[in-house]
Amino acid sequence: MYQSMTYISIYTSLVVVLLLWLGSMQNPFKAAWIFVKELIFSRKFLILFAAMVCVLLMNKYELQFENAMKFSGDFTPDIFGLEGRFVHHFQQLFYTPWLTPILVFFYIVVFQTILISSVGIYAAKKNWVWMYGTCYAVIINYLVAIPFYLFFPVNEVWHYAPAQVTFHMLDAFPAFEEIYRPLSGLNNCFPSLHTAISVTVSALAIRSGVKSWSIIAPICGVIIVFSIFYLGVHWLSDMLAGLVLGLTASTLGLRLARRTLRNDHRYVDTMRSGLNRY
């Protein structure tokens, strides 16, 4: 399934369309059009969205910054000393061959689609506070995580021999190291952004009042968090740090969104309804 990033992009696009439809119960292309109009007619959202893209690009080039720094620290033994072989026992308990490709799909494809779909769903519902809040929360997640990746490197569990963990990702995605690894550093573990973003999207969805999305997003989030242990990628410590980061980012993101939109006449009605609900 994963012969190149082109295939992954195609799967991502198809799943985004599906989630936009299921999450908003509207034409997914309508959601995309409303989002584009917001970018065109709202300078505030354009600046916010551009800031989010810049932060995501920072994460993309973080590996280059890391190589340039030549920082030799490794905190993996300290993490192992705290939790031991938790992930090893997790894999022993849950490993099932037919489950592996499903979890790889959630880890690689669904992870990014729930984030993209969130913005589109809130645009379709004209739930501006949550749309802005999602963008703010993503920025917070990455701005907090990137310094840890640079100055607190922790290797993935499977790569640390004493942990005795199998990298099941290769069972369904044999070319992972060649195709996907350039986007995901081997020592970019703490905190787990797969956890942080999944928790952020889920927490916002539950509070958004969008019924279908408040069910779909948390289910996807739980499966993604399950996959980080099953596939042998993250430590329990990574997940717990990601959980705290995701909950914090979602709360701060909503506060920043409300403050941003407070005096904007285009959002007065939705701001009032949102404040009345929560």
Structure, described:
This protein has one domain. Residues 273-278 have low confidence and may be disordered. 42% of the residues are buried. The protein has helices spanning 5-24, 28-41, 43-60, 62-69, 76-83, 86-94, 100-124, 128-151, 169-172, 176-179, 193-208, 211-230, 236-261, 268-277. It contains 14 helices and no strands. The chain is mostly helical. 74% of the residues lie in helices and 0% in strands.
Quick summary:
Keywords: Membrane, Transmembrane, Transmembrane helix. With 278 residues, the protein is mostly helical.
Secondary-structure blueprint of this entry?
Layout: H1 5-24, H2 28-41, H3 43-60, H4 62-69, H5 76-83, H6 86-94, H7 100-124, H8 128-151, H9 169-172, H10 176-179, H11 193-208, H12 211-230, H13 236-261, H14 268-277
Task: Give Rg in angstroms.
Answer: 19 Å
Question: What share of residues are in beta strands?
Answer: under 5%
Overall structural class, as computed from helix and strand content, comes to mainly alpha
Order of helices and strands: HHHHHHHHHHHHHH
Count of runs of 4 or more consecutive helical residues: 14
Q: Helix content range of the residues, please?
A: over 70%
How much is the average pLDDT? 91
Task: Domain count, please report it.
Answer: 1
Task: Flag low-confidence runs.
Answer: 273-278
Morphology call: globular
Number of strands: 0
Largest sheet: none
Distance between the termini: 43 Å
Protein name: Phosphatase PAP2 family protein
Domain Inositolphosphotransferase Aur1/Ipt1: 89-250
Pfam families: PAP2_3
Transmembrane segments: 6-24, 45-61, 98-122, 129-152, 213-233, 239-257
